[in-house]
């Protein structure tokens, strides 16, 4: 049975208590839904009292996290939080089967292979010579999230049924100095 | 022979304004490029560039004034610039970034390191 036909409720993974602004959306990530969420994130960032470069980085992260959901999960949850100090978190959750988990682990291993200071060179090589993924992506999403967040990308797999697990991707965007 | 038509596309919330002007020999992208399907958006831009590059002469100016672009668009932009490397006329790229926007400045430097074309990084003020 296709994953999106199953009655799964991807949990919101961010604790939204004690945050300045927070939201969680659970549903199918496509077309207008994604546009609406991105507009909302952008409005929230506009109102946040943080430097423009931080806002721009945060928006870039939000775009990658949401579009990653639409490419790989379609049905899932997206949470967003702005903390009192201006730092931000984005988190997505979607169900994956064992095969998708294995593919993800390979991609994560590749993306995390090099230390942050060597990331730019890795992105350059991929940009210049990398091929498109089977989903039409550039294969740069995880590398970009690492760069944007200064290496604050966290992933985990949480069992949710006999055959599936939740893939949780959380990105923290620190204040730019 | 018919003159080549310009390619003009209005900006949307997720795609940039496109002004590819054959007679003026200028190509401008401005706004943001964050479509889910960047290949679909860039396909006509790549086709126009390929056609333009077959017969153009002299100098062509390429102005990239992007506020944001997603990683999928970054690859398409690379494809566009690589086509310009093969152009029969001499392309020069102007890459604009807002002051303090180190990410966009670095992105311009990255393209400049890969693409064998003259590249000028142009800092703009936030109010521009």
Mean pLDDT of chain A: 84
Unreliable residue stretches of chain A: 1-6
Q: Which superfamily, in CATH terms, is the homologous superfamily of chain A?
A: Histidine kinase-like ATPase, C-terminal domain
Oligomerization state: heterodimer
**Proportion of residues in extended strands of chain B:** 25-35%
Whole-number mean pLDDT of chain B:
93
Rg over alpha carbons of chain B: 14 Å
Structural class of chain A: alpha+beta
Structural class of chain B comes to: alpha/beta
Largest sheet features of chain B? 6 strands, mixed
CATH topology of chain B: Transcription Regulator spoIIAA
Portion in beta strands of chain A: 15-25%
Number of strands of chain B: 6
The tally of beta strands of chain A, per DSSP, is: 5
The amount of helix of chain A comes to 40-55%
Give helix % range of chain B: 25-40%
Give the total of domains of chain A. Answer: 1
Number of helices of chain A: 5
CATH domain class name of chain B: Alpha Beta
How does this structure look, described?
The complex is a heterodimer of chains A (177) and B (128). Chain A has 177 residues and is α+β, with helices and mostly antiparallel strands. Chain A has one domain (3-174): Heat Shock Protein 90 (2-Layer Sandwich). Helix content of chain A is 40%, strand content 23%. Chain A is built from five helices and five strands. Chain A has helices at residues 31-47, 52-72, 98-111, 119-129, 141-148; strands spanning 21-28, 75-82, 88-96, 153-159, 165-173. A five-stranded antiparallel β-sheet of chain A has the order 1-2-3-5-4. In chain A, a hairpin with a 5-residue loop joins strand 2 and strand 3. The radius of gyration of chain A is 16 Å and the shape is globular. Mean pLDDT of chain A is 84; it is low at 1-6. Chain B is of the alpha/beta class. Chain B has a single domain (7-124), classed as Transcription Regulator spoIIAA. In chain B, 36% of the residues lie in helices and 33% in strands. Chain B is built from three helices and six strands; from the N terminus they run βββαβαβαβ. Chain B has helices spanning 38-55, 71-85, 102-114; strands at 7-9, 17-21, 26-33, 59-69, 90-98, 119-124. Chain B has a six-stranded mixed β-sheet with strand order 1-2-3-4-5-6, covered by helices on one side. In chain B, strand 1 (7-9) and strand 2 form a beta hairpin. The mean pLDDT of chain B is 93. The interface between A and B is medium-sized, with 31 and 26 residues.
């Amino acid at each position: 049975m296709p994953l999106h036909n199953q009655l799964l409720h991807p949990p919101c993974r961010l604790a939204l208590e004690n945050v300045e602004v927070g939201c969680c959306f659970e549903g199918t990530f496509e077309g207008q839904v994604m546009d609406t969420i991105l507009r909302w994130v952008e409005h929230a960032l506009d109102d946040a009292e943080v430097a423009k470069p931080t806002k721009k980085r945060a928006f870039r992260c939000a775009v990658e996290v949401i579009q990653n959901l639409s490419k790989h999960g379609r049905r899932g949850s997206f949470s967003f939080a702005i903390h009192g100090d201006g730092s931000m978190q984005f988190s997505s959750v979607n169900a994956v089967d064992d095969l998708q988990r294995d593919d993800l682990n390979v991609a994560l291993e590749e993306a995390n292979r090099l230390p942050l200071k060597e990331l730019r060179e890795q992105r350059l090589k991929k940009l210049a010579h990398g091929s498109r993924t089977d989903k039409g992506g550039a294969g740069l999403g995880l590398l970009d999230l690492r760069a944007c967040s200064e290496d604050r990308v966290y992933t985990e797999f949480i069992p949710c049924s006999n055959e599936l697990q939740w893939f949780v991707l959380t990105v923290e965007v620190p204040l730019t100095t | 022979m018919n003159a080549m038509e310009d390619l003009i596309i209005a900006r949307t919330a997720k795609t940039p304004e496109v002004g590819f002007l054959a007679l003026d020999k200028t190509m401008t992208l401005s706004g943001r490029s964050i479509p889910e399907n960047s290949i679909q958006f860039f396909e006509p831009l790549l086709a126009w560039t390929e056609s333009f590059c077959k017969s153009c002469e002299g100098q062509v100016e390429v102005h990239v004034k992007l506020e944001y672009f997603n990683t999928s668009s970054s690859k398409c932009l690379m494809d566009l610039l690589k086509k310009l490397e093969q152009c029969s006329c001499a392309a020069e790229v102007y890459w604009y970034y807002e002051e303090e926007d180190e990410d966009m400045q670095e992105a311009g430097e990255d393209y400049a390191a890969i693409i064998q074309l003259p590249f000028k990084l142009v800092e703009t003020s936030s109010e521009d």
